[in-house]
Every structure is written in structure tokens, then in C-alpha cells.
Design brief:
The protein has 784 residues and is of the alpha+beta class. 57% of the residues lie in helices and 14% in strands. The strands form three sheets. Strands 3-2-1-6-5-4 form a six-stranded antiparallel sheet. Strands 8-7-11-10-9 form a five-stranded antiparallel sheet. Strands 13-14-12-15-16 form a five-stranded mixed sheet, sandwiched between helices. Strand 2 (136-138) and strand 3 (142-144) form a beta hairpin.
Length: 784
């Protein structure tokens, strides 16, 4: 039988669809329709009645819990106020206090009342009434009452020793009476002459009361023992509702419970209970409309049934439409992945995601090949690798692995060495007309661009790193030769001149020693970061070549000015700010008189600050409070200018301390102590005692001893001993006097002098003289 030639492209084929379309339609239909219908029916038939009961029980439980919370709030105020009444300062001694002259007692009472007022958010005011010859009221400040006010406050004492709550309207600006808790004082007598009155904030108390009715259109009232309203909140829009509710409550003899109450054809759920207050009982009543409790669930359940039934039909239509919409991008994606119509026809009936996974794996392999080729050409990856290498993130890698990675990125490492450079900018704070202190990032970016421009002209392989803290680094990869070091110094000079000219800042460039190992690159960068701290502590351009520095370095003789530090501490104790400023400048001049490296100067000024901080702590002031939590050590370590260090010590450290200290210290007492200290300095060699000094300044030994310890920091006899021992040490070192003569010269008998000297210094005077004379001879010999 002959066959006709048929063109396959002209054959009408069915529209291609896979299994995913049918499965998604069925699943969406089930999700959209069945659960909603079942849920609606279940809620309607089985849940409405139970939920109504549960909601009512939950409403009662909430009211009980909130009432308990309200009771605890008032009980806390009663207990806390009663606690303060038992304080000794609120006893009989209040009658004997002259509150004008004895201002410390007045201040303590005011401080106590302020503490009480801030102890609870319901407390609006607290007052202390004293019915003395002149009636006094602390509110919390000291006030004298007139006759009208006296009558009012005396009325609060009508119940004698009983603590009680009253309606209170004495405070100015109060539109309506509020509650106040009255505690008579002193509590230990039957005839109190005053009272501590704690006033409740009316608005906050009303807000607390409203929490007993968690629904709108309800009402809440608080009644005293006489069924009079203390507080009330009415949102029912019915003016007579409160009176009707009080009358209804009077019919119930129970202390607590709940019952339905109909008023103007509206059914309410009433809950009530009692608060036991000191010497009284309060009753709370909460009224909530029943419709507010149960209506929402009935409405929602019926609505769910209607919507679910309607949605059953609509879900079929939407499921079909949604499945087509969901499937459209899948069909398009499969079409793009599969290709022409012939291939697509071969995949009919297959799972679309299996086709996508197969094609995706094929494309991922091709993408990975392209990505690998692309990453080899990206400069950003090279910079990222160098930054991680410098930071030490590849310490676990072997040398060969690191070299292979660097060569993969395009570096030539054969017969090459590595050198690290560090650039540190200084003087930013002194160039305020050009940059602000917040321009660190911009300034560092400009400096790195300058480094890159010169490096391109001078080095074949390099990489510049921006550290963003006024510093930058550079890794140089070069072929070792005799001119390499000279080229690095010429590069440093060019960069320095360009930064001085363009950015107007000074530059410190540190050059590391060379290394042939890639693994040692992080160490040479750490070396230059540490090495730049050996710069001279001046705001000038400097180049530190660590190779030359280590070869030519001699041990630096550094002397810390202990004597000047001691004078500074003594001047701080006396509050002599002008003298302190002179001594601070003297201290820094002694540090910088020689070309000392920055690291030594920073350690010295940090040591001085530590000594000053110790003195501040010794005076009873915490540095964290004085300096408002600032990190003073970090601030000081960032300063690289002597004048700014001097100003920082005076303005930021010492002045705030002296101001706070003078605010706490009696100036006249300070002058007396200065006289005593002067007498000690001038007469330490004589028989001097605390009693004789007290007579000379017209005070008693106890007061003088207490004031001396507060101002000077140590007691009288320790200070006298310290001065005598210091003078004895000088004579032992710098004179040939006999120890007996030295003992008498500083005011001691020989036998006692030996004991006190060993106790203070740790060794006898003869051994102390021998050790220090041997040390002096050794120093002289070294100088020769």
C-alpha cells in the first residue's frame, strides 16, 4: 500500500501540558474550599455555646486578676509609706530640729520625700506635715503654713494613730478631690504631732480602675465602707447607671461574686469584690454589656458559614484560574529550557520540575566554567585576597597553597621578596579650615589614591590597602637588588610631599623588613603597625625604616618624672588649679625634652592619668560618673600633640573633678587643712601632734582628723610619718650624716626610727642607704 508524504510540521498537535498543571489545580481547589467550610460548620454547631461560657468565665477571671493587681498597687503604697514612718528620722526628734539652721536635716527629709514620691507611678505628691510651734509642711521643700492650711492639715490627724485613706483636695490646680493615704508620726506615740501624706494621681488611678472593664460601653466604680463613690468610670452613656448599679450592689450580701443586671433593656454582666485596706474596706464593681462579650463570636461563626458556602463555588473558578496563572511561568520556563517544538513534544507527560532540574544542572556546569574564568580577571578579588592575607585569615594555609593562589590571581612571585609600608596621617585636628574630625574616611581615601599614583610609576607589582582610620598600607612585590631600599625611601618622600601639598597633613611612613615568605606577610604588616609607634612625639613628617632602626637602635634612657607627678597630686588635693596647670606643662616638658618615641610618652601620660584617677577614686568620686561614661584612656591614646595633652588634662580631667569636689567641700575647712599641712612641712622635725595643730587652728582633734582625712586623703599621723620618712630618705641618699642624727633631724628617737622606717619602706635605714649609694655609683660608672 503506497504511503503519502506527510509534512509533520503541518500536523495539528494538542497543546503541551505536564503533570504539574493537573496536580496544582486539584491541590489549590482542596486548599481553597474544604478547610474553610469544615471550620465554619464546626464553629457554628459545636463552638458557639462553649465559647460564650468560656468568654464569660474568662471575663470574670480577667476582672479578678486586674482587681488583684489594683489591690496590690494600693497595698504597696500603704506598706511602703508605713515603712518610712517607722524610720528614726520621723520620730520624736523632729520636735527638736531647727529646720532653718540644721539644713542638713532639712535636705535629708526633702531627699527622703523625693525618693518616696518616685517609688511608685500612682504617687502624685507626698507631704510631711509637722504641727509644731510654727506649723511646717515639706512638699517636698520646706514651707511654713498659715492658719487656714494649719486647720486643714490638723483635720487629717483626727483619727489619732490610725493610718487611713481620705479624699484630698488641698493641692493647687487640682479640679476634683483625689485619694490620699495619711500616716501619723511619730508612730510610737498616742498623740501624733504630724503626718506623712501620700497623694494618689487621680488620672492614673482612674486609668487603673478602667482596666477592670475590658470592653467598651461598660462602667467601673470603687466604693468605700459607706458605699460612697471613691472613683468611677462610666462609658455606658446612661447618666443614672452608676446610681442604679450601687443600689443593686447593696442588695447582695456576699463579699464578691457576679450576676446579670438589666438596665434600660440592656443586659450587663456585673462582677464585684472587696479590697481590704488599712482600717477600711473598699468594694469594686465592674459592669460589662453581655453583647460585647458574646456577640462577636456568634457573628463571626455565622459569617464564616455564609462565606464558606459561597466560597465553595467561587473556589472552583478561582482554583482553575489560579492554577493557570501559577503554571504560566512554569510553562514558559520549560519552553525556554526545552527549546523547539519537536523537543517539547518529546517531553509531554513528564514532570516539569524534573525537566527544569536537568536543564539547570547543565547550565550550572557551564556557568561555573564561565564564573571561574571571570573571577581570575577581577581586580576586586585580588584586593580582597590581599586584605584577608594581611589580616591573617589564611594562617592555616601552607606556603605553596598561598603562592599558587597569588599566581592564579596574576602575580609573579618567582625570585620575589615582599615589603610592607604603613602610612599614618597626623595633624587632622589642627587643619579645621580644610577638614573636620569626621572626614577620616575622605582623607584616607585621598591618601591611598596618592600612594597608588606614585606606586604605578615606581613599582611593578604592589597593592594599596585602605584601613580607613587615617592610615593605609601597601604591599610591594619586587625583585631584590641594592637599590630597592633607596627606591622605597624615594617613594616615601614623594608621597609625603604630595600629601603635605594636597591634603595639608603630616605623614609618618613605616617601612618593614623584607621577607620571601607569603605566610610572613601578615607579620610584617603587624610589624609596621607596631613600629610606627616609635615615631618622635611631634607633628612632623617622619620615615621609620625598621631595618635601619633595629641595626642602629641603642637602649633609650627614659626617666619618668615621679617628683612632678607627686607635686601634681598634692596640688589636686589642695584644689590649686593654676599651680596644677604649671605642673602639667612641667611634666610634659620633662617627658619631651629629649627625642623620645611616641610609645614612651603615651605610656607616661597614661600613667599620670592613672595616678590622678586613683586620687579621684580615693576622694569618693567615681570616674565613670565624673566623666559621664567616656573612655578616657582611649581619648588620651588618640592625642598626638603635647599642647592638646596639657589642655585635655586641665579641661577634661582636673577641672571637672575640682568643681565637683569644691561643691562637696567646705572651703574654710580646706584652708584650715592647708595651714596644718604647711605647719607639718615646716615643723616635721619637732614634736608635733594632732592636738597641738587643733589648738592652733581653733578646732577639736576629732574634727581636724576627720577633715584632714577627707581633704588630704590620709590621716594626720600617716601624713606626718610620710613627710618625715621622705626627708629621711633624702638625707640617707644625699648626705653622710649618721643615722642617729638623721633620726633626730626628722623628729624620731633612734630605736623608734629604725622600726618605723622598716615598716614604711620594708628595709632598715642602713640597708636602704647602702642599696641607693651602690646604685648611684653604678650610674656614675655607666655615664663615664
Amino acid at each position: 500500500m503506497p504511503f503519502k508524504n506527510i509534512d509533520i510540521n503541518k500536523v495539528k498537535r494538542p497543546r503541551w501540558k505536564g503533570n504539574f498543571h493537573r496536580n496544582s489545580f486539584v491541590l489549590i481547589l482542596l486548599i481553597a474550599s474544604i478547610p474553610g467550610l469544615i471550620t465554619g460548620l464546626g464553629i457554628y454547631w459545636f463552638g458557639v455555646g462553649k465559647v460564650e461560657d468560656e468568654l464569660s468565665a474568662s471575663n470574670d477571671s480577667q476582672i479578678i486578676q486586674r482587681a488583684k493587681n489594683m489591690d496590690e498597687q494600693f497595698q504597696y503604697i500603704e506598706e511602703y509609706t508605713t515603712h518610712w514612718v517607722f524610720e528614726p528620722r520621723f520620730g520624736e526628734s523632729l520636735k527638736d530640729i531647727d529646720f532653718v539652721k540644721q539644713f542638713h536635716e532639712t535636705y535629708d527629709i526633702t531627699k527622703t520625700l523625693s525618693l518616696l514620691q518616685g517609688s511608685h507611678n500612682l504617687i502624685s505628691d507626698d507631704e510631711l506635715f509637722l504641727n509644731l510651734d510654727k506649723p511646717i509642711l515639706f512638699k517636698p521643700q520646706y514651707n511654713i503654713l498659715d492658719e487656714k492650711q494649719k486647720v486643714f492639715y490638723n483635720s487629717l490627724l483626727s483619727k489619732g494613730m490610725e493610718h487611713h485613706w481620705v479624699e484630698y483636695s488641698q493641692s493647687k490646680g487640682r479640679k476634683s478631690p483625689t485619694l490620699a493615704f495619711v500616716s501619723p508620726i511619730p508612730i510610737t506615740t498616742k498623740d501624733p504631732f504630724g503626718a506623712l501624706i501620700v497623694t494618689i494621681d487621680h488620672n492614673k488611678a482612674l486609668q487603673l480602675l478602667k482596666t477592670l472593664t475590658p470592653y467598651e460601653n461598660g462602667a467601673t466604680i470603687l466604693l468605700n465602707e459607706e458605699n460612697k463613690v471613691i472613683l468611677s468610670s462610666n462609658s455606658t452613656n446612661q447618666s443614672n447607671f452608676i446610681n442604679a448599679l450601687i443600689e443593686e450592689i447593696g442588695k447582695h450580701k456576699q463579699n464578691s461574686g457576679s450576676f446579670p443586671f438589666e438596665f434600660n433593656h440592656i443586659m450587663y454582666s456585673i462582677s464585684f469584690g472587696h479590697f481590704t485596706r488599712i482600717n477600711s474596706n473598699w468594694t469594686y464593681v465592674s459592669a460589662a454589656p453581655m453583647t460585647s462579650i458574646t456577640a462577636p463570636i456568634v457573628f463571626v461563626s455565622r459569617l464564616i458559614i455564609i462565606i464558606s458556602a459561597s466560597a465553595l463555588i467561587l473556589a472552583i473558578i478561582l482554583s482553575w484560574f489560579t492554577s493557570r496563572k501559577i503554571y504560566a511561568p512554569v510553562r514558559k520556563l520549560v519552553g525556554n529550557l526545552v527549546g523547539n517544538e519537536t523537543e517539547r513534544w518529546n517531553h509531554v507527560g513528564k514532570d516539569e520540575f524534573s525537566i527544569i532540574e536537568q536543564r539547570w544542572n547543565e547550565m550550572s556546569q557551564k556557568s561555573n566554567l564561565l564564573q571561574n574564568r571571570l573571577t581570575e580577571q577581577l581586580t576586586e578579588l585580588k584586593n580582597s585576597f590581599i586584605y584577608q592575607l594581611v589580616q591573617g585569615y589564611f594562617f592555616q594555609y601552607h606556603e605553596d597553597d598561598l603562592r599558587q593562589r597569588m599566581e592564579t590571581y596574576g602575580w609573579n612571585l618567582k625570585n620575589r621578596s615582599f615589603i610592607a609600608l604603613d602610612l599614618q596621617l597626623t595633624g587632622l585636628t589642627d587643619s579645621k579650615e580644610i577638614f573636620s574630625t569626621n572626614d577620616d574616611g575622605l582623607v584616607t581615601f585621598m591618601a591611598t589614591n596618592i600612594m597608588e599614583d606614585f606606586a604605578k610609576e615606581m613599582f611593578e607589582q604592589f597593592n594599596v590597602i585602605n584601613f580607613s582610620d587615617l592610615s593605609a598600607g601597601m604591599l610591594v612585590i619586587y625583585r631584590p637588588d641594592h637599590s630597592a631600599r633607596e627606591k622605597l625611601h624615594r617613594f616615601a618622600k614623594n608621597v609625603t610631599e604630595a600629601v603635605n601639598r594636597i591634603i595639608k597633613l603630616q605623614v609618618t611612613i613605616t617601612i618593614s623588613e623584607k621577607t620571601e615568605s607569603v605566610k610572613k606577610i601578615p607579620y610584617i604588616f603587624e610589624e609596621v603597625r607596631t613600629g610606627k609607634r616609635f615615631r618622635t612625639f611631634e607633628n612632623i613628617n617622619q620615615v621609620i625604616d625598621l631595618e635601619e632602626y633595629k641595626n642602629s637602635r641603642n637602649d633609650i634612657e627614659f626617666h619618668y618624672p615621679f617628683a612632678t607627678e607627686k607635686e601634681i597630686i598634692q596640688a589636686i588635693r589642695m584644689g590649686q588649679l593654676d599651680e596644677i596647670e604649671v605642673l602639667i606643662k612641667k611634666f610634659t616638658q620633662e617627658l619631651t625634652c629629649k627625642e623620645i618615641s611616641e610609645i614612651y610618652i603615651q605610656q607616661a601620660v597614661i600613667q599620670l592619668y592613672s595616678s590622678i584617677q586613683h586620687e579621684i577614686l580615693h576622694s569618693g568620686i567615681h570616674p565613670n560618673d565624673l566623666f559621664e561614661g567616656k573612655n578616657m584612656f582611649e581619648e588620651l591614646s588618640q592625642i598626638r600633640d603635647v599642647d592638646r595633652i596639657n589642655l585635655w588634662f586641665i579641661n577634661d580631667v582636673i577641672s571637672p573633678y575640682i568643681q565637683k569636689l569644691e561643691g562637696r567641700m567646705n572651703i574654710e575647712l580646706k584652708r584650715i587643712i592647708e595651714k596644718v599641712v604647711t605647719k607639718i612641712h615646716e615643723n616635721y622635725m619637732n614634736d608635733i601632734s594632732l592636738e597641738s595643730c587643733a589648738d592652733e587652728v581653733s578646732t577639736n582633734p576629732y574634727s581636724l582628723s576627720k577633715a584632714f582625712k577627707q581633704i588630704v586623703g590620709i590621716n594626720f599621723i600617716d601624713y606626718l610619718t610620710q613627710q618625715r620618712i621622705e626627708k629621711a630618705k633624702e638625707l640617707l641618699i644625699h648626705s653622710d650624716m649618721k643615722i642617729n642624727d638623721i633620726a633626730e633631724g626628722v623628729g624620731y628617737r633612734h630605736s623608734y626610727f629604725n622600726r618605723i622606717f622598716k615598716k614604711q619602706i620594708g628595709i632598715p635605714p642602713s640597708q636602704f642607704r647602702k642599696l641607693n649609694q651602690d646604685t648611684n655609683k653604678l650610674i656614675v660608672k655607666n655615664d663615664d
